[in-house]
From TrEMBL:
The lineage of its organism: Eukaryota, Metazoa, Chordata, Craniata, Vertebrata. This is F-box domain-containing protein. It comes from Eleutherodactylus coqui. One of its GO terms (biological process) is SCF-dependent proteasomal ubiquitin-dependent protein catabolic process. Pfam families: F-box-like. Residues 1-42 are annotated as: Disordered. InterPro entries: F-box-like_dom_sf (IPR036047), F-box_dom (IPR001810), FBXO4 (IPR039588), LRR_dom_sf (IPR032675). Residues 11-35 have a biased composition (Low complexity). Residues 49-95 form the F-box domain.
Length: 398
């Protein structure tokens, strides 16, 4: 009897194979159940589904705004709905005619062939058509065209392009109107001085025409980088951009002088200007001229790329960082003439003490708290590299 009960218990207990089969079947049941049940026991679809088309149009456009231009063109081929969305003007915010990388030669020019330049010109016109056909609403415009080029008519091209897109929200402008991007250096051989002067006149006349158009179409410009001719008319036009916070002005021509009153008028007339970068080349004929500068809002001033720029007065109560570099141009003067000239120049240290009470960084040197009352070795070394006064410049060369 006890032997029968023992055998009965052995028959009821699962063997090794029965155990694995039972566990595998139970795991399959549980996995199938878990795939059908959500975290709270709700049944879910076996495949994930994201209803992108059900999002509001503004949300869809916001997602597409993170794509590059090439990616937007690719997305437009997905379906008719996306193709329509890709024609929304506010998806096309940047017009960059300076892209397409080039091999720099280490000098001012770019090493490209005439054939490559012709291909680039063809791309420029196709790119402009691409943006205008979509009614682009620009935030950024970057271009480098010689507006005085009477053969290619870049001035007319750029004016026509601006008329074909929306520029009311334009905030950033980088425009080199003296040089055509990727143009071979020898495509137009240099002429006589008279021809060069005529070409420069054509350039800044076309620039002023374009600038007048921008004052009417793009009042929200806040960042600007361009060569500047410093004429009274150009300065008057520039003061129309009352939202400018960052301004970089490069020299237009080595023989073009800058009147001190003109520079003072410009900086005083821009109430929101925070950053100013100036590249001014003072001609030798203006040696001895010094410049006043006034701005209640300016916080960063960089004139380190200028040549012969000497200040006579500074009224910059908000300035925090200042960069300036003294450039010796190799002008040999006798001692009497040099001393008479330098005695008319104010010491930069005296101007900074009075006109920049919040200055913290001078030529990348962090000033000590008592810099206004007492000079020290590091500050004196910086002044020797930046000040033209007789105390900091003891040389026969200027």
């Amino acid at each position: 009897m006890s032997r029968e009960r023992k055998l009965f218990r052995q028959d009821q207990s699962p063997g090794p194979e029965g155990s694995s089969e039972s566990s595998s079947s139970s795991s399959q049941d549980s996995s199938s159940t878990s795939s059908k049940l959500g975290p709270r026991g709700h049944r879910m679809k076996s495949q994930a589904y994201f209803p992108f088309s059900l999002l509001p149009v503004d949300c869809q456009l916001h997602v597409f705004s993170f794509l590059s231009e090439v990616e937007k063109c690719t997305a437009a081929m997905v379906c008719s709905d996306w193709s329509k969305l890709m024609r929304t003007p506010r998806l096309w915010r940047v017009a960059d005619f300076m892209r397409l990388g080039a091999v720099l030669s280490g000098m001012d020019g770019v090493l490209v062939s005439v054939r490559e330049f012709e291909r680039w010109k063809e791309w420029v016109h196709q790119y402009a058509y691409h943006l205008t056909s979509r009614g682009a609403s620009l935030l950024v415009l970057r271009a480098s065209f010689d507006l005085g080029d009477q053969r290619t008519k870049w001035a007319d091209f750029l004016l026509q392009f601006l008329d074909s897109v929306h520029c009311g929200d334009l905030q950033e402008l980088e425009l080199n109107w003296t040089l055509t991007h990727l143009e071979p250096l020898d495509i137009y051989p240099p002429g006589s001085m008279a021809q060069i002067c005529l070409a420069k006149t054509d350039q800044f006349n076309s620039f002023q025409t374009l600038f007048e158009r921008l004052t009417r179409s793009s009042p929200k410009l806040s960042r600007m980088k361009l060569p500047f001719d410093w004429s009274e008319h150009s300065v008057s036009l520039l003061t129309h951009f009352q939202n400018l916070s960052t301004l970089e002005l490069n020299y237009f021509w080595v023989f073009k002088s800058v009147r001190p009153e003109t520079m003072q008028q410009l900086t005083k007339s821009l109430p929101k200007l925070k950053t100013l970068i100036l590249q001014v080349l003072v001609p030798v004929k203006d040696l001895g001229v010094s410049y006043p500068m006034e701005s209640k809002s300016l916080e960063f001033l960089d004139v380190s790329q200028s040549r012969g720029l000497v200040f006579s007065h500074l009224d910059l109560p908000s300035l925090k960082e200042f960069k300036i570099k003294k450039t010796i141009r190799g002008i040999i003067l006798n001692r009497r003439t040099r001393v008479a000239l330098q005695t008319r120049w104010s010491c930069l240290y005296d101007l900074l003490k009075v006109g920049t009470p919040k200055l913290q960084v001078f030529n990348s040197h962090t000033l000590l708290p008592n810099w206004q009352t007492q000079t020290y070795l590091e500050l004196s070394e910086v002044l020797l590299q930046s000040c033209y006064c007789i105390q900091h410049t003891d040389t026969w060369l200027l």
